[in-house]
Amino acid sequence: MKNLIYILFSLFLSNTVKGQDYGRNLGAVSVIYNHQSGKTFKYSDEQVEVSIPKESISELIVQLRNVTNVPLYFNWSESYFLINEEMISINDNAKESAIAFGLAIKEVNSLPPNTKIVPSSKVELRIGSKKGMFWDYRDANNYFKEHGKPREDRLVLVFENGDKKLEKSIAIQVYTGKIIKQLKK
Q1: Angle at 169 between CA 166 and CA 171, to 5 degrees
Q2: What average pLDDT score do residues 76-81 get?
Q3: How far is CA 152 from the centre of its chain?
Q4: 11 pLDDT more than 90
Q5: What are the CA-CA distances from residue 42 to residues 55, 116, 174 (Å)?
Q6: What mean pLDDT is predicted for residues 105-130?
Q7: How far is Cα 43 from Cα 148, in angstroms, rounded to an integer?
Q8: Per-residue confidence at 133, pLDDT binned at 50, 70, 90?
Q9: Where are the domains of the chain?
Q10: Pick from 134, 127, 65, 137: nearest CA to 96
Q11: Which of 19, 43, 102, 112 is the most exposed place for a label (fewest CB within 10 A)?
C-alpha cells in the first residue's frame, strides 16, 4: 500500500512540474507573462515595478510600485488588453464590485478617475474587462491551428507622469492542453 501511495504521489508531482513549463494554470488555459514562467510575474524599470501575483480567467491582480520621486497616475481609460487581435478596455473590478453591492455609484458615461501612486508606494489593482473572460481555450486552439504557434496577447498599462504618458506592455502567451501536446511532439 505504501508503494502505491508513493507511485501515485510521484506521478502527481511529475505532472505538476510538467504543467509549470507552460505557465500558470487557470483551468482550461495556462498563461505566461513576457516569456517568464514562475509563480509571480515581475517587471521593473526606472519608473514602476509591476507584479501579477494572482489571476483567474476573468480577473488579474496587478500590483504597481512607484519607484520615482514624483507621483504617477495609472490611467484606467487608456489602458487595455489586446486579446486575439481585439482591443478590449479594462475595468476596475474592485469598483465594479462596490457598485454591484450598492456601496458606490457610477455616473452614466463617466470615465474612471486615474489612480494616484505616490513615490515609494504600492497599489493593488483588480483588473477585469467588459468582455468578461480574457482567455477562451477554443479561441487559443483555433489560433494555434491557423498560425502554428501559441497566441500572444498583451496587457498595456498606461501611466501619466506630469504631462508625459508612459506605456508598459506585458506580453501574455496563452496555452491549452491541446497546444502543449502539439508543442511536445
Answers
A1: 175
A2: 93
A3: 12
A4: no
A5: 14, 21, 18
A6: 80
A7: 28
A8: confident
A9: 2-184
A10: 127
A11: 102
DSSP-assigned states of every residue in 15-73: HHHHHHTT-EE-SS-EEEETTB-SSSEEEE-SSEEEEEEEE-SS-EEEEEEE-SSS-EE
Task: List Cβ neighbours of 81 (8 Å cut-off, separation of 6 or more).
Answer: 87, 88, 90, 129, 134, 153, 154, 155, 156
C-beta of residue 35 within 8 angstroms of C-beta of residue 46: no
- Would you state the torsion angle of the CA atoms of residues 114, 152, 136, 124, taken in this order, to the nearest 10 degrees? -30
Contacts of 125 (CB under 8 A, 6+ apart): 61, 62, 63, 64, 74, 92, 94, 115
| Pairing outcome for strands 115-117 and 72-74 | antiparallel
d(CA 117, CA 147): 40
- Cell 491549452 sits on residue: 176
* Cell numbers representing residue 55 in the block: 489571476
pLDDT at residue number 109: 52
